[in-house]
Amino acid sequence: MKLVEIIEGKAKILIPDPAQFSREGKFDPAWSPVFYNPRMTFNRDVSVIAVSIISPSSVLDAMSATGIRGIRYALESNVKDEIIFNDKNPISIEIISKNVKNNGLVNSKVVKSDANSLMHQVKVEYTDLDPFGSPAPFLFAGISSLRRRGYLGVTATDLSALEGKSKTSSIRKYGASGGKLSFSREAGLRVLLAKIAREAAVQEKGIKPLVSFYNDYYYRLFVRMDDGAKKADATLEKLGTLYECEACGYSFMSQDNCIKKCPYCSGNVRRFGPAWTGELNDQEFLDKMKERIPSFSYLPNIGRASKLIESLIAENKYELYYRTDVLSSKMKINMPTMEFMINCLGNAVRTHFDPRGFKTSRSISEVRECIKAGSTNLQT
Q1: At which positions is S-adenosyl-L-methionine bound (predicted)?
Q2: Environment class of residue 346 by beta-carbon count within 10 Å: exposed (0-12), middle (13-18) or buried (19+)?
């Protein structure tokens, strides 16, 4: 098998030559014997910034593949001590070992093990879960691998289950029932956090989301564990249900799981949950990420990362987002421009979740009035 070198961040990584595994001129990373996805570079760029703030003494890269994520943490994120690289694929182990050596890592260990088995045996300050597909089977063990007040990083690509599009998968993997809502991208992230919260509570730990976002086709989040039964109980109090009115479009969250009518217009509501109803991001952590941006000016994606962080900061004081196209359709009028909606509402921002979406503290009646005014404005 031919290996080729790629550069990502400060790391130089050997990966299987994509040309050897192409089919009819096309290549999917899943076809390679060792998974490396260049589309996840932005994920890793943002993660490197976040982990540099955590500055963990020890790291477990539970599903290492080529080792790119853990190696970048070692070179770019101020990891103080040991990094454990793990994969159950023997070919991956060979490539990881070469990459660790080529990048001059000293305090590292390469392990060939089932991820869940290993996570029940180690104790580290930060564990990274970046599975191919759903993280659900790995969350309990991932939390178990953490020392007191440890940190967990999670990537999820199974959006059909998390967003409620696949109802059976939603129930099976995340215990979430109901159906897809118009703000599905935020709903999926909140369902994922709720799953992590429940898995942590079993181990008498609470969670504090530090940074959570959607990008391209995946979710990425970082949470801190707070030990103790009381912390776990307080976390569970932040679980509830997401609602959306079928008639007027009003969206809201509640700890009451049995609401059937819209509090605004008395229309029927659709529901999805359990879901996290607390903040998705920690303001102090976001501010630190923003301050750290100049230190990562060498990254090609740094402008994009900076824009994401700015968006998360702006969105953090608001709850669920609305979509202009959905509300306009319900009102049977033309869709106003996003610029008009933001200006009309005043207390409102665009959301990173969806280019058609915005967040606001205004009431649904005020939102609908702006939709109406914006539609009229298009006709004049």
Answers
A1: 44, 69, 87, 114-115
A2: exposed
User: Would you say residue 201 lies in a domain?
Assistant: yes
Per DSSP, what are the bridge partners of residue 244?
251, 270
pLDDT tens digits, one per residue of 164-208? 999 999 999 999 999 999 999 999 999 999 999 999 999 999 999
Which residues make up each annotated binding site?
44, 69, 87, 114-115, 245, 248, 262, 265
Task: Encode 19-33: b = buried (16+ Cβ within 10 Å), e = exposed.
Answer: eeeeeeeeeebeebe
* Radius of gyration from C-alpha coordinates of the chain: 22
Q: 330 and 310, same structural domain? A: no
Quick one: 165 and 299 in the same domain?
A: no
Do 93 and 216 share a domain, yes or no? yes
**Residue numbering of the annotated binding site for S-adenosyl-L-methionine:** 44, 69, 87, 114-115
Residues 92 and 135 in one domain: yes
* Whether 195 and 301 share a structural domain: no
Per the structure block, which two tokens stand in for 373?
């005014």
Binding-site residue ranges for Zn(2+): 245, 248, 262, 265
Closest CA to 219 of 300, 135, 145: 135
Angle, alpha carbons 94-123-285 (nearest 5°): 100
End-to-end, the C-alpha distance of the chain in Å comes to 65
Angstrom distances, CA of residue 32 to CA of 7, 195, 344: 18, 31, 51
